[in-house]
Amino acid sequence: MSDTTPPPIPSQPPPPSGASPETHVIDYRAAEHLLAARDPRGAVKLLDSVIAAHPENTAARLLRARAFFAAAQLRPAALEFELVLEREPDNAFAHFALARTHERAGRPERARKHFRLAAALDPRPDYLAAARFED
What we know:
The structure is a single chain. It is elongated and about 55 Å long. It is mostly helical. The chain has helices at 21-36, 40-53, 58-70, 74-87, 92-104, 108-121, 125-131. The protein has seven helices and no strands.
């Protein structure tokens, strides 16, 4: 062969340089599965690119907050839950999860506030029990 021989034609085109919306959906779903399989750090890695592309996506931020919490990264978890609550102040689950984060970090007064907000927004038995309104 001479030096002028063209390179072989690849059987498939190279992947696009940027991720597509479909890729982000796949990454989000994979992150859900990783979190369910108790791999929160893997979930966070996948969600980082999703959130970089779609910073307004509250569902992705909520999932990343849950992953941070499961990985015992309490400060990043609290920041993500707070961001969700800035956008959705009536999200009872986010209040409850933020309360659990504060509780785990040794901030009982902050926890109580969010437990009570969660229970007021959604009077589920577990939210009501955590709110301890009788105290």
